[in-house]
Amino acid sequence: MPQKIYKTGIYARLSKEDADSIESNSIQSQRAICLAYIESHEDLELVDTYIDDGRTGSNTDRPGFQKMLEDMRSGRIDCAVSKDLSRFSRNYIDAGNYLEKIFPAMGIRYIAINDNYDSMAPGAGSDTITLPFKVLVNDIYCRDISIKIRSSLEVKRKKGEYVGGFAPYGYKKAPQDKNRLLVDEDAAEVVTMIFGMYKDGFPILKIAGRLNASGIPTPMDYKRMQGVNFQTAFRTRERSEWEYVTIKRILSNIVYTGVLVQGKRGTPNHKVRSVRPREETDWVRVENAHEPIISCTDFEAAAELMRRDTHCVSGSDRHSLFSGFLFCGDCQASMTRKTQKRGGRQYVYYNCGGNKRTHQCSPHSFSEAKLTDIVFHAIHDQIEVVLHLDEVLRFIDALPQRDRRVFSYEAQMTRLEEEIQRYKKLELGLYENFVDGIINKAEYTDFRENYRGQIEEKQEALRRLKREQQDAAAMGSQNRAWVQVFAQYENVQELDRRLLLALVDKILIYEDKKVEIVFRYRDEFARAMETAKNYKDCPLPAVG
Question: What kind and span of H or E run contains 177?
Fold first, then answer.
């Protein structure tokens, strides 16, 4: 009877982890070992070689492996050879399923050279006892490597090291340290331009249009121009274009403020490859991880504005001056901009949007010209108040310690903590006094409630003192950065969207024509005023 010739395929796999280990795991080495084995066996005839480079062995979702299975089903090959079982699979369940069920059912012969396993060799059935243990060891090894890698990445994230494959647009990886981000001046200039245009009132789509018209490369094209091997399934044309989602992604990315937020997505374990979003509480956030491109003030203002309803002026490519800032003081609906021509002149005014939709609120009609004048002077006055207040706080900072009439927060908190512990010990000793007959049940209950009340009161005082200490620290001259936001507009001559975006949260118009301007940093301003009030000799600024 003539000897059967098996149409054989070589399977070689190298994962990213294996690439850092010994040379014998290289694709070339694996192929050479398998080729030498096939040449030394007359019943094996090489048909093809299947390679998975940089692919994990924890699952079978590998292009080379799947192509090999297709050729087995079509009858092109009926034998597979690999250097060892770990190259074939490190997954205990998958390996067992293929070796004990699928391959025997398909009539496929499998050979693992270094493990001395040949499914068609005489006595191969005896290997069914030892084979599962070998596969299990490979599975445990894969799990151990996965845990080590995950732990290493988590440590890097918590240290503020960047672990992404590609640097965010506007940054580049440091040449000597791939985990550190450096500002890419060319791309950062575009990021700054995008935020600047948005601050000036350009809608996101208009920004995208201008960038396309200027021939500025998109983040994807820019990466390619820099020689980065960047692949994406979203590319549909040779040269990509700026789109709404691209601009919004940049405006929403906190990385431009120097904050690094990582670990938003991940896989449950080494066997499940599908990436899933993680709970926000599991994200790793590190402040001041790298040099910022955009200030926190500009980023937060842009983020807030994107959440609001904004519209362009008819015939203009920009938002109107008050778009996204103006609300009805009575029903909180957005105010709607209207234009009316009368006597050859055009008049602009605002109406309550709630009145237009439900008629449950009055029109609140208000002239844009009048509103512009009111808001501008109110902002100008607020800037003067803030700068005067800053002078007062600087005067306080300069006072000798004995004249500040402040006490040591640490000493006060230590005293409160000691009193809390004292009352807790008294409470613990009550039960022994009750058992020993020193006090009766009614006295025990009264004393216990009294002690617990004292403990709760002291704990609340301690919390209040800690808040006061934090506020006092925040009032130091080095921590009053919000004052500088007002100071940079000290000599402003006209009202524009940049000024509104920097200093104003929202503007409310009431039915009685009252206008209320809600400024940004109002909490910081209130705490500063409270600090200044403690010093009678300091002239406080008048608040309008």
Answer: strand 177-183
